[in-house]
């Protein structure tokens, strides 16, 4: 397994160095961090072949890792519990939110370079086979845009890319999905923000399916984990299921209700029918750097159960991998999350959940 991961990392490094060297060698010498980010973004936006190479290397390494772990689990008894029903009790809003008031500011048009980005696995190529790759239960990175047991693919849950654009007053996250989004549905989308880079989500932005290309605060919430139990005992690593954790327990914003009625907005991307846009004020985060990821959920939708890999065993959760003794997916279904990107600081490489 370690050898496969090293091969995957080497392939990615060679591809990246080759691409940057070919397009941005010049006579300017070494790049600053900001320039390097721009180079990386432009490369991913213009070099689809590079993405294909990275995806292929990633798939190979992950499949090999799954094969190794599957061999150790082959003799285990597989349980197939009934999928967990969505909890009817949501986190209590504490303290009481201020009633919605007149809006004072609105997000604008997203222009220019993106400041951060991440790429997520696209499961549509394997939809007819009812399998996929890229799912990493133990690392809290899920690739499960399928129904439980029968593994019916739902493209509206399959995140394939997220761009982030930062302006003076607003941060914009643009989520892209595998196919055109439906007009409506019960799915939830959002961002998870880790303010101190320790692997525990601190803030969670959640929205339903936007109704139009106009900015709106309808059906948009921000939750906070005040007592620090998101991630269980070991952040981003699956722990033995424990009772008593409450996940995101404080509601800070709900459809314009809260201290700031303009704190977060959402709309359908007017330029791409496979995409939605989320805009939140810079005041939500403050001047410090942070890590962020995106998620889509039409399954459990249980904010009090985050992180899901701490609430279910791997056997109960199932697996989308072909040939896995845990196939198919069971208790964690119709759920897609990304690894974590960063903004506003230089990562060491050891941050939990950081994208490779």
Can you walk me through this structure?
The structure is a single chain. With 356 residues, this protein is α+β, with helices and mostly antiparallel strands. It has 2 domains: 1-75, no CATH class; 81-343, no CATH class. Helix content is 19%, strand content 20%. It is built from 4 helices and 13 strands. Strands 2, 5, 6, 7, 8, 11, 12 and 13 form an 8-stranded antiparallel sheet that branches. The protein has a 5-stranded antiparallel sheet with strand order 1-3-4-10-9, with no helix packed on it. The chain is globular and about 55 Å long. Mean pLDDT is 81; it is low at 1-51 and 60-89.
Note the main attributes of this structure.
alpha+beta, five-stranded antiparallel β-sheet, globular, 356 residues
Provide a short characterization of the protein structure.
The protein is an alpha+beta fold and 356 residues long.
Write the topology of this structure.
Blueprint: H1 2-24, H2 33-46, H3 48-73, E1 116-119, E2 143-144, E3 159-166, E4 170-177, E5 188-194, E6 203-207, E7 220-224, E8 250-254, E9 264-268, E10 275-281, E11 290-297, H4 314-317, E12 335-337, E13 341-343
Antiparallel strand pairs: 1-3, 2-12, 3-4, 4-10, 5-6, 5-11, 6-7, 7-8, 9-10, 11-12, 11-13
Overall average residue pLDDT: 81
| Principal-axes shape call | globular
SSE sequence, one letter per element: HHHEEEEEEEEEEEHEE
Q: How would you sum up the major sheet?
A: 8 strands, antiparallel
Structural class of the helix and strand makeup? Answer: alpha+beta
Supply the number of structural domains. 2
Tell how many strands the DSSP assignment holds. 13
Which residue ranges are poorly predicted, with pLDDT under 50 across at least 5 consecutive positions? 1-51, 60-89
């Amino acid at each position: 397994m370690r050898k496969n991961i090293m091969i995957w990392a080497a392939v990615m490094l060679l591809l990246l160095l080759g691409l940057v060297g070919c397009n941005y060698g010049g006579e300017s010498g070494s790049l600053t961090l900001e320039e390097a980010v721009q180079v990386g973004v432009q490369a991913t936006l213009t070099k689809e072949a590079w993405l294909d190479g990275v995806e292929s290397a990633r798939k190979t390494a992950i499949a090999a890792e799954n094969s190794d772990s599957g061999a150790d689990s082959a003799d285990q008894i597989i349980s197939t519990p009934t999928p967990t029903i969505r909890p009817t009790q949501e986190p209590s809003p504490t303290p009481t939110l201020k009633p919605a008031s007149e809006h004072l500011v609105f997000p604008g048009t997203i222009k220019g370079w993106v400041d951060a980005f991440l790429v997520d696995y696209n499961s549509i190529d394997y939809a007819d086979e009812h399998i996929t790759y890229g799912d990493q239960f133990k690392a809290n990175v899920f690739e499960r845009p399928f129904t439980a047991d029968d593994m019916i693919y739902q493209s509206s849950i399959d995140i394939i890319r997220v761009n982030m654009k930062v302006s003076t007053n607003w941060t914009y996250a643009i989520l892209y999905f595998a196919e055109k989004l439906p007009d409506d549905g019960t799915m939830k989308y959002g961002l998870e923000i880790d303010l101190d880079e320790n692997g525990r989500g601190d803030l969670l932005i959640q929205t339903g399916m936007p109704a139009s290309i106009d900015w709106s605060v309808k059906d948009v919430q921000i939750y906070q984990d005040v007592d620090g139990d998101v991630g269980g005992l070991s952040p981003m690593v699956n722990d033995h299921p424990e009772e008593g954790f409450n996940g995101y327990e404080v509601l800070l914003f709900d459809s314009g209700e809260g201290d700031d009625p303009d704190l977060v907005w959402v709309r359908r991307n007017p330029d791409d029918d496979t995409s939605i846009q989320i805009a939140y004020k810079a005041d939500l985060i403050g001047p410090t750097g942070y890590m962020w990821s995106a998620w889509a959920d039409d399954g459990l939708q249980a904010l009090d159960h985050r992180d899901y890999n701490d609430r279910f065993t791997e056997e109960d959760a199932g697996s989308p991998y072909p040939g896995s003794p845990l196939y198919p997916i069971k208790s964690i279904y119709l759920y897609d999350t990304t690894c974590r990107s960063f903004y506003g600081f230089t990562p060491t490489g050891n941050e939990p959940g950081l994208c490779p």
